[in-house]
Amino acid sequence: MTTERVLVTGATGFTGGHLCERLARDGHSIRAVARQPDNCSDLRRWGVEVVPGDLRDPASLEKAIQG
Questions:
Q1: I need a labelling partner for 16 at 20 to 30 A (CA). Which of 1, 34, 38, 52 fits?
Q2: Cα–Cα distances in Å, from 65 out to 1, 25, 59?
Q3: For 25-59, how does the pLDDT look when each residue is reduced to its tens digit (9 = 90+)?
Q4: What is the CATH number of the domain that holds 27?
Q5: Which residue, 48, 40, 44, 1, is CA-closest to 23?
Q6: 1 pLDDT exceeds 70?
Q7: Number of domains forming the structure of the chain
């Protein structure tokens, strides 16, 4: 199976969190955008790379995409 690199927004919410968990179990490389990256220990436990960003700030999203 080929794994993909995935950028997830909303990863700290219910749906996004479950999506990250499933993608991690399937072996994907995940980067999650979070307004408060220090509060994302669950995501990090699954191997998710958490980067600071906000959907209302296009520059932060550009950084997350380029990473």
A1: 1
A2: 24, 22, 10
A3: 999 999 999 999 998 999 999 999 999 999 999 99
A4: 3.40.50.1100
A5: 48
A6: no
A7: 1
